[in-house]
Amino acid sequence: MLGAAVFALGARDWFQPSFTFETYFNNSIAGLDLGAPVRFRGVPLGQVTQILTSAATYERDVPLNKRREYIVVRVKVNLSAREAVQMRQDALALSKRGLRAQTQLAGITGQQYLALDFMDPRKYPPLEFGWTPRYMYLPSAPSSVGEIVSKAQSFLASLNEADIKELGQNLNRLVSDVDNKLGQLPLAEMSGNAQSVLMNADATLQRINHILEGAPIDHTLVRLDSVATHLDSLVGDPALPETLQNVDQAAQRLQIMLGDNQHDVRAAVQDLRVTAGNLRALSETIKRYPAGVLLGGPPAKVQIPGGGQ
């Protein structure tokens, strides 16, 4: 029973196939802790089991001024027995192809993990060392964050006093130009225009509120709701399709009737035009000779003394 309990609590890991390798870093790996996950292109492989220094692990007998002072990270990868054997056989070839270990940040949490991926072996060559690794050695590559910081530090270190002085002068000129441009802006006029716009907007909003709060708007909305209700009831009336069909049939009949009596309609329209002309002439005659229309012909011509009419 004691043996079974020990096996259940962890002794079974002794019999589980695994593969251990180590990698060395020549820069800080702050944030990478024991138990950090190890992933190959996002696929979990294992975890970090040891974080040591080369001085305490391999360089105890090396003089202080000749020590590399690398950071030794050891990783345990859980594999099947066949995969572990295959990994040991392909380790050197994978390293030559550019398989490198690199610390990366895990999303927004900021936790670091060890990532394995293929990179340019000429850009990231293996670190130099003079000892025999205890486990299979896998070269490393600087982390992206550390590389950015290193490049920034190199850039700052490359600046001399003249460059720094010129940079300061350029910044001063830039600040002075910005200040001059701000001084040329008509701030008072812009402020007055902005205040006028705000006042107009406030007056418009007050008018809108007054209109919305008025009784006519409520009454209109009620009427619109009533009209919409009537329209809904009309559209939903089952007799509406039949009514529309009757109207369509009546229109077709009217069109046929007008087509059949087109000549008669034209003659009637012409007679109406003649009658209208006669009525117009009669009206003009009544205006000029009202008594003559009622009693007889037009009045006799008047003789004007002197021979004129």
Describe the 3D structure.
By secondary structure, the chain is an alpha/beta fold. The protein has helices at 2-9, 54-57, 81-97, 144-158, 161-184, 187-213, 215-235, 240-260, 262-288, 290-295; strands at 18-25, 37-40, 43-53, 71-78, 99-106, 111-118, 136-137. Strand 2 and strand 3 form a beta hairpin. The longest helix is centred in the middle third of the chain and has 27 residues, at 187-213. The chain is elongated and about 155 Å long.
SSE order and pairing:
Elements: H1 2-9, E1 18-25, E2 37-40, E3 43-53, H2 54-57, E4 71-78, H3 81-97, E5 99-106, E6 111-118, E7 136-137, H4 144-158, H5 161-184, H6 187-213, H7 215-235, H8 240-260, H9 262-288, H10 290-295
Parallel strand pairs: 1-7, 2-6
Antiparallel strand pairs: 1-4, 2-3, 3-4, 5-6
Order of helices and strands: HEEEHEHEEEHHHHHHH
- The largest beta-sheet arranges its strands as 5-6-2-3-4-1-7
Mean pLDDT: 79
User: What share of the residues does DSSP label as strand, in percent?
Assistant: 15-25%
* Helix count from the secondary structure assignment: 10
Key structural traits:
309 residues; alpha/beta; seven-stranded mixed sheet
Question: What's a concise summary of this model?
Answer:
The chain is 55% helix and 16% strand.
